Amino acid sequence: MAVISYIEAVTMALREEMERDPHVFILGEDVGKKGGVFKATDGLYAQFGEDRVLDTPLAESAIAGVAIGASMAGKRPVAEMQFADFIMPAVNQIISEAARIRYRSNNDWHCPIVIRAPYGGGIHGALYHSQSVEAIFANQPGLKIVMPSTPYDVKGLLKAAIRDEDPVLFFEHKKAYRSIKGEVPEDDYVLPIGKADVKRKGEDITVITYGLCVHFALQAAGKLAQEGIDTEVVDLRTVYPLDKETIIESASKTGKVLLITEDNKEGSVMSEVSAIIAEHCLFDLDAPIKRLAGPDVPAMPYALPMEKYFMMNPEKVEKAMRDLAEF
Amino acid sequence: MAIQQMKMPKLGESVTEGMITKWLVAPGDYVNKYDPIAEVLTDKVTADIPSSFAGTIKEIVANENEQMAVGAIICTIETADAENTPKAAMEPKAASSTKEAPEDQSGRYSPAVLKLSQLHQIDLLSVKGTGKGGRITRKDVQQQIDLKQEETQKQPEAVLAPAVQAPEAGNGDIIVPVDGIKQTVAANMVKTKQEVPHAWMMIEVDVTNLVRYRDSIKDSFKKAEGYSVTYFSFFVKAVARALKEFPEMNAMWAGDHIVRKKDIHVSIAVAAEDKLFVPVIKWADEKSIKGIAREVNDLAKKARTGTLTKEDVSGGTFTVNNTGSFGSVQSMGIINYPQAAILQVESIVKRPVIIDGMIAVRDMVNLCLSLDHRVLDGLICGRFMQRVKELLEAASEDTMPVY
Asked: How far apart are CA B68 and CA B52, in angstroms?
């Protein structure tokens, strides 16, 4: 099995799906000739041509709107937002149209689109290139939000997203693009959307997180294991709708739960996870449900020390995990 | 730095002295406030002395098994001022960042801890917390549960206090030290045996019906309630009922008069390891078989874990002793001072019995009564025993319902 990077897994999944289904096409800013600013669509323009890999104007509302229209006409568009931060002009299209159309038309119409977007900080990208936007969409029934952590999950989940009959937001952590590598099978496989993955089994504390933070948690868990602290790491993979079953099972088992997100703390995806645990696991809790998240300031700052302060890192994660274990 | 004095606490209303049976700390040990530092004995109960300070044990003043007056200094503790805190002692977990000794959390229980402890009948007061501030964690309880499961595998050896002789320890003989509790038991036994004119009586009871009845409900009861309904519960019930009808039996000698007690509080003897406890089932006459079975179960558990309170062991008016559990078929109990009588329930054995001129195999049990002849006489005891016999022989779902 080949070891490839997170972003190579994105390209691999796109290529395989485009080869499998002629209705699959890509649209976005600089995705064609340039192969995307991060090179996620590198080589696809050359392989599939300009009819299936479309360079669009700098108009995110149009990218989403065109994709929605095409999908309703039988196509399988994969739209790229150059940065998740730029998705804002498309929010009306995504929420008011894509998320609602199946419900509004009583199942006559549906909207099988995928919107990919790189999110997250730690790359010195400042306000407009570092944000986490999942919480904005995470209370819109009709949408699905997938945020994978490993190359293996990227490939299986992106293929599942493209084959899904409803709109899927697929957020890729840009710092993971080249820093995270892993084994990815060459064959065709899909992973279930809406299903969390226990990345490490443990008995003492549970860490629930997603995206890049999964790796921070796994690193810290390895360190803490030497001190006799046995950590379970749950990777949500899909942050909307949440895999309640896995969350409840793991929280009930250890009774000590740490929820980690890089997003601002209040109203984050983790607030909902916390509520699920509070509703279902009261009598199994051995400690208060803990959230480790970004501070409630508008966005990731530019200055390096400030970015460090805002950004999640292995040290912060390790300290929070140890504190919880010692409680 | 400051040296603080720990004094013998007042452990009860009328208690003026106590005996430290075991030190749980040694000089140089670091203790948090409320950490147990020693076990102290009053009557037949041991209790923990919690530390009044956080600091390092400086000097142990009181010796083990030495009577100390309430208020006497038992040890000194060196407490640390903020500036010259000995770092190593203050922070057992050096890895975590600098923080002062956390607030005591030993009495704060999480839902998980409460749920587990209730499910497995773990007494949280006997669990040592390893969490922050001494908080009991889910894992601490889980450890106790595992420990308990191991323990229940081994049956406790039941040994009553041996007769006192003037022994000589020769070559190869082993000298067994006698701790505070054993000494208290021994002193009470001697006092009772010397002071109370004991008389004895034994009857045999046909409990075939009771055996059949109890066997028929044994499994369903265990399944429904989670603990066993033993024969002993039925004997306690029968005795409590008979005591109600014969208040003379529920009495005490008081020098120039006799006190007949209104409340029927049945003491039961429980052997735990090498110790003998006599906890009390209060108002036994008002309780169902289930109620009695549950109390027997709870009290025995507390006795084994050493968590009986003074409340649990005081106020008894009559004692029922389950000598049958050791296989005994006849015994002469020493009365539990200042009560007037003790009833020994012996083993239930199958014996050939003649009924209507025919030989039948019946479940028979001997009941042995020791009585204080100053308070009671053969007539009243005979009637009392006849009544107990009647009640037991007629035991059925109708006469002795479980609920």
From this structure: 18
